[in-house]
TrEMBL record:
Name of this protein: Small ribosomal subunit protein uS2
Record keyword Ribosomal protein present: yes
SUPFAM superfamilies associated with the record: Ribosomal protein S2
Gene that encodes it: rpsB
Organism of derivation: Christiangramia aestuarii
Coiled-coil portions: none
GO biological process: translation
Length: 298
């Protein structure tokens, strides 16, 4: 469950300031509270509700173990997004959006692998065998790849969702995500079209304080989802361990039957019985012999 959003905090951060009235998008009308000095004011109660909704959805995605790609190439959002995305351990794009980043992901992965192969060259000594000019070219290529794709080096498959700051500026990223049916979460100002995104947060996407407030809330929601995933994994391991131990305890224990060792008294009794039998047999045979001899004499 994502943390509750306080309207006062959003007000202090300047989230409510929209664009000039002449630059508005009519589809944003349900989220506009009023007009003041030629500027539209965003309804912060609706912003808070939408922020919480987006936070809960992102927490669920993070809890499932999938990645959320942060996208913000405007100057005032770059550092904020990079910092918060790293905190949440998620990939991000803060430089130019590489065309085909999502729709041609295989090619992008090849470029990332090229960066990894250059690193291997430096480790195994192959890089030192190159000429000075070749080394300079390889270094320049590595720096370019690092700048554009370094933050997505660990993203081995397409992201489960996109979080965008300023949908008008990042229209290419939005179009690619729409083609692949990837859910889009975004900060949407009064000059943008809210129909392009799945989870919108009506907010000022130009002021750094406003961006920081929204993006930090989103990152915290993702961290919460990740910690929930970890606790569920630990609980599952404990259950498996307990059930395993329970099965071992329930298993019938086979008693080893001890071989009966005859005692000394039992042996003596047996010998006495056999001796008595022998005596009886001898006396019986003697009686028969006497009877026989008396018959012969007669």
């Amino acid at each position: 469950m994502a943390n509750k959003v306080e309207v006062k905090e959003l007000l202090d951060a300047g989230v409510h300031f929209g664009h000039l009235t002449r630059r508005w998008n009519p589809n944003m009308a349900p989220y506009i509270y009023m007009e003041r000095n030629g500027i539209h004011i965003i309804n912060l109660y609706k912003s808070a509700a939408k922020m919480q909704e987006a936070g809960e959805a992102l927490a669920k995605i993070a809890a499932s173990g999938r990645k959320i790609l942060f996208v913000a190439t405007k100057k005032q959002a770059k550092e904020i997004v990079a910092e918060q995305a790293e905190k949440a351990n998620m990939p991000y794009i803060t430089e130019r959006w590489p065309g085909g980043m999502l729709t041609n992901f295989v090619t992008i992965r090849k470029a990332v692998k090229k960066m990894a192969s250059i690193d291997r060259m430096k480790k195994d000594g192959t890089f030192n065998s190159l000429s000075k000019k070749e080394r300079l070219q390889v270094d320049r290529l590595r720096a370019k790849l690092e700048k554009n794709l370094g933050s997505i080096a660990d993203m081995s498959r397409l992201p489960a969702a996109l979080f965008v700051v300023d949908t008008t500026r990042e229209h290419i990223a939005i179009k690619e995500a729409q083609k692949l049916n990837i859910p889009i979460f975004a900060m949407v100002d009064t000059n943008s079209d809210p129909r392009e995104v799945d989870y919108l947060i009506p907010s000022n996407d130009d002021a750094s304080k406003s961006i920081s407030k929204v993006v930090s809330y989103v990152a915290d929601s993702i961290v919460e989802g990740l910690s929930e995933r970890k606790s569920n994994k630990d609980a599952k391991k404990k259950e498996e361990k307990a059930s395993k131990e329970g099965k071992e305890d329930k298993a019938p224990k086979v008693k080893k039957e001890k071989a009966e060792v005859p005692s000394k008294d039992a042996e003596d009794k047996k010998a006495m019985k056999e001796a008595k039998k022998d005596v009886k047999l001898e006396s019986k045979s003697e009686t028969l012999d006497k009877a026989k001899s008396s018959n012969e004499e007669e």
